[in-house]
Amino acid sequence: MSDSTVVHLLRHGEVHNPGKVLYGRLPGFRLSTTGEAMALAAAEWFQGRDVTHLVSSPLERAQQTAAPIARTLSLPVQLDERLIEAGNAFEGLRVGVGDGVLRAPQHWWKLRNPFRPSWGEPYVEIAARMLAAVEAARDAARGHEAVLVSHQLPIWTARLHVEGRRYAHDPRRRQCGLASVTSVTYDGDRLRGVSYAEPAGATDPDAVPGA
């Protein structure tokens, strides 16, 4: 058996979000028609790879993204709460530049510390739970590959952690498009490298916000 293991962090596909709110962990947000096509593209990308372990965030959009992979690879989908979206005080609100919640002074105090961040789950806590999920998947798929379906900020925070970069960042500069794959490769328990792919193509800059 090879000592090389790859853990793929797959972001879910586009979500139906006509209100353009930050949906976070709220229930009832499913993939759009485009998002379903993205999930199929991701499943096709994984076809033929040595994936032996498939895990999803418990949120519906992540499970929908995992479903075609499960069918394609004949694998069960396990759920892991550690892969869930980051907590955010602005859930259910519009947060676009120039409109919505950020124009209301009563919300400005939540922005007081972007390094933590003060508006949601601390980066250090996101990194800790994501790293635990990644290492558990690495151990379960030793010598093979694992797929973890999660969300943009948790995946990006995990990448910042394993690459030894600071957590505070500009959200517009995250390399984590819809249905993208961030792959973490290990030799034994030692990190060998991180790579990135976009099986469904680049995300439209005007794509609906959310997570």
Automatic annotation (TrEMBL):
Gene3D superfamilies: Phosphoglycerate mutase-like. Pfam families: His_Phos_1. One of its GO terms (molecular function) is phosphatase activity. It comes from the Bacteria. InterPro entries: His_Pase_superF_clade-1, His_PPase_superfam, PGM_Phosphatase. GO terms for cellular component: cytoplasm. PANTHER family: BROAD-SPECIFICITY PHOSPHATASE YOR283W-RELATED (PTHR48100), PHOSPHOGLYCERATE MUTASE (PTHR48100:SF51). This is Broad specificity phosphatase PhoE.
